[in-house]
Amino acid sequence: MKRVLLLTFVLLVAGLTAMAQSTPEKTPQETARAFTNQGDYTNAIVVLNSALQKDQQNLELLKDLAFNYYLNRDYTKGEAIAKPLIERPDADVQSYQILALFLKIEDEAKECDRLYKNGLKRWPRSGVLYSEYGEVLWAQQDYAAIKEWEKGIETDPNYAGNYYNAAKYYFFTYDKVWGLLYGEVFVNLESYTKRTAEMKQLLLEGYKKLFTTANMQKDQDTKSAFIIAYLNVISPLNFAIKDGVTAESLTVLRTRFIINWFNTYPGNYPFRLFDYQRQLLKDGMFDAYNEWIFGAASNLPAFQAWTNTHGDDYSRFTNFQKGRIFKLPEGQYYQVSAAK
After folding, report:
1. Structural domain containing residue 51
2. pTM over 0.90
3. Are residues 124 and 216 in the same domain?
4. Range 182-191 burial, b when 16+ CB lie within 10 A, else e
């Protein structure tokens, strides 16, 4: 009997040991981040401080600690940790972002301005720094913000934030086309957030405003050959929206636009967004794509009715969309004024 109990105990211990070996322990940073995700910033701070006793100069742990102090509204301690990080040779973009959080909350506009300028000297192709710096300028009602967002689009074309900010800026200027183009690029880069729903509504309103101008070419006031070409193609298509700007009329308009664009300017202005639209048109998903962008914003009951009667088509598009990565190549930047 004793031998049976001893054997059972040995097997149990061996089983537990095997389980422990098959389930790797979490690192202190993983444990802390789990607490952060739960909103338990105090426990995250406890874990990070403990880990830093063994590795006092660990940049990742220090960044997480400063960020958790920020979330916990202990700004003095957080800034004291974040400030030295940007002086380190191994500082990264995130180090600057974290310190900027404290400077913004303390309304240190000049320090924040200096911080982003220094950060962009170190990382002149960082889309996120251009985006955030532009937001700082915009909060001060400094319209030079658009130059930062445009530079971010030019140098880091796959960072969504600059398209979001620039599109919103252009929707309230004469340059409606840039608002439409940047807004649509944005919803393809960031497809399922609150900002996406906001941008879809702006895109619908942007098309309405584009076609209510007395003279589309004159009102755009652009020096971009790309935009002039865009206006040359889209202006004659106003017949498509003679009964109003809706998801359905925009589908007709945009279908004709893509066909005419590639017939008129087949290789003059390579642009990933137009290539993507042509791909969807060839694959029979362009109607669903346009409903996804404009349907709910234009008329929610009509959109719901469309998806009910075209369920397979809509599912096919959304499954395709979720399974692909929309990526813009460098060198397809055609804005010539704002970023200069």
Report:
1. 26-81
2. no
3. no
4. bbbbbbbbbe
